[in-house]
Each structure stands twice: as structure tokens, then as C-alpha cells.
Amino acid sequence: MKLTPFHLAVQVRDIAEARRFYGEGLGFAEGRSAEQWVDFDMFGHQFVVHHNPALGLDGQIAQISNAVDDHSVPVPHFGVVLEFPDWEQLAARARALVDNFIIEPYIRFEGQPGEQGTMFFADPSGNALEFKAFRDIEAELFAT
Questions:
Q1: Which positions ≥6 away from 62 have C-beta within 8 Å?
Q2: pLDDT given at position 114
Q3: Per-residue exposure over 77-114, b if at least 16 CB sit within 10 Å of its own CB, e if not
Q4: Start and end of every VOC domain (predicted)?
Q5: What is the pLDDT of residue 69?
Q6: Could you check whether 1-52 and 64-144 share the same CATH topology?
Q7: Domain boundaries, the chain
Q8: Measured distance CA(93)–CA(28) in Å, rounded
């Protein structure tokens, strides 16, 4: 099956803050926008932030967490599966941008089927992001 771009919309507490984080910080190009929302190109996918004034300027999106590979993984979370060189470049950008990773970039399931590079961090509004990479995406993405 041919993969097609996903569309994901999330709420943020401040549009200007989201523009700085996703646009300037992570390097995602901006598409269409209005006063209350902004489209970003997240590795070819349409990612949209919508202002939610109910969050307030210090608000955060609520999360739970589950244990995966001895780490506490936030739920909900979203992100993109990347080629390893792209993941390594994003990890370098994220290290310069993010003060506190939820899970620092590392290799998960090392030496096992589905071995992957992964990292988790949150945007300023608390939306949890995971970016991962496989050396062979087709063979490893759904490996058991």
C-alpha cells in the first residue's frame, strides 16, 4: 500500500509559541494559517496547531504513561517514523531546543526485531512527540 500524508490537529496554548517551537526550533515549514491555527509540514505530513484559550498561558495537555522498554511513555503522543540520518539530524535540533526530554534519544529494543532509534519530548503546551527511526523501515516497522 502506498503511504499517504496524515493530517493531525492538536491544541496549543499560544500560537506564537507554537510557531517558534515547530517552525524556528524544529524547522518545520509553515503552510496556511489564520489567527487561531497554523499548518506545518512535518516531514511531508500536515500537522496543524489550533489555539485553545482554555489552556491559559501556563496550561499543559493532560497525559498518562505506560511502561515500554523500561521507560515511562506518555500517552497520547504522536510523531513520524524517519530514516536514521533524518532522525539523527532531528535529534541534534531537539537537543538544542528541548530543555527536558521525556525520553532522551536512544536505541530501543537493541539487537531485537524492531530495533529503533527513539526520542520523546513535549512541545510547550505539553503535546508529547515521539520521533523514531529504523535502519530498514519496511522490514522492521511491524516486526514482532
A1: 126
A2: 86
A3: bebbbbeeeebeebbeebeeebeeebbebeebeeeeee
A4: 4-134
A5: 82
A6: yes
A7: 1-52, 64-144
A8: 11
Q: How far is CA 61 from CA 7, 104, 109, 137, in A?
A: 19, 20, 28, 30
Query: Which CATH superfamily groups domain 1-52?
Result: 2,3-Dihydroxybiphenyl 1,2-Dioxygenase, domain 1 (3.10.180.10)
**Looking at the domain covering 64-144, what would its CATH class be?**
alpha beta
For residues 12 and 138, what is the distance between their CA atoms, to the nearest angstrom?
Answer: 33
| Closest C-alpha to 77, from 121, 140, 142 | 121
Span 41-91, pLDDT tens digits: 999 999 999 999 999 888 888 889 999 888 899 999 999 999 999 999 999
Say which amino acid occupies 94.
A
Is the pLDDT higher at 11 or at 1? Answer: 11
| Burial (CB count within 10 angstroms: exposed 0-12, middle 13-18, buried 19+), residue 67 | exposed
- Looking at residue 115, its amino acid is E
> CA torsion sign, 2 to 5 to 7 to 10?
positive
